[in-house]
């Protein structure tokens, strides 16, 4: 399906505000940009978050990978993606002070609302993070927009950083995504006795061995035991380093350093 043509003017801005975009917290938050609005570089995706209990919109694989690291972290309380620099007058004034041309629609001349890829609420306060590939940081116009954003968050007293592919551990993110697929169990696997049986054996047996044993012992379809193991890993009932021959050991202990 083709993406909608991006149009920006006073009417579009008022429509966004009226529909609550960029407002709210947790489950009630509505991102300023959604994957339906316009095409992106890379892979766009919509993913449900068990932390916020809503669907998130990501415009690149790097954003998605970073999201899984945040979703896993116990230090992160809320994740708001495509977060707007909603005080347009402030943003325009800061750009003027820096002698930077503020981005406007080429037809209507109306100022765009800049967005930050992630506004993260942590136990230590708010953190703003913008995801950029290293190659993008060689472009003058990109750097100018980032400077506007830097000044905006500095003015509001919010910690802001750029995160590139060099700061995202994709292996850990992929491991976390693997656990994530089993966050919810079907009813037939939810018996507490199955959980205890797996926890009893996982210290001395590999994932493959426990999964195979579980399926054969209880007569479940192949893969049922693996799903239960992944579920317990997602909910941190199993620490990965407990598992014999486990390749996911680093993922469980990993927490993205939001001070960086």
- Please tell me how large the radius of gyration is: 22 Å
Task: Name the beta content range.
Answer: 15-25%
Which regions contain 5 or more consecutive residues with pLDDT less than 50?
A: 242-256
Tell me about the largest β-sheet: 4 strands, mixed
Secondary structural class: alpha+beta
Query: Order of helices and strands, N to C?
Result: HEEHEHEEHEHHHHH
Read across the widest sheet, the strand sequence of neighbours is 3-4-5-6
Large-scale geometry = elongated
Write a compact overview of the structure shown.
With 260 residues, the chain is an alpha+beta fold. It is built from nine helices and six strands; from the N terminus they run αββαβαββαβααααα.
Molecular structure report:
- This protein is α+β, with helices and mostly antiparallel strands and 260 residues long.
- The protein has helices at residues 10-18, 61-72, 88-97, 140-156, 170-180, 192-201, 207-218, 224-234, 249-253, and strands at 45-49, 54-58, 76-84, 115-122, 125-131, 159-163.
- The protein has nine helices and six strands, in the order H-E-E-H-E-H-E-E-H-E-H-H-H-H-H.
- The longest helix is centred in the middle third of the chain and has 17 residues, at 140-156.
- It is elongated.
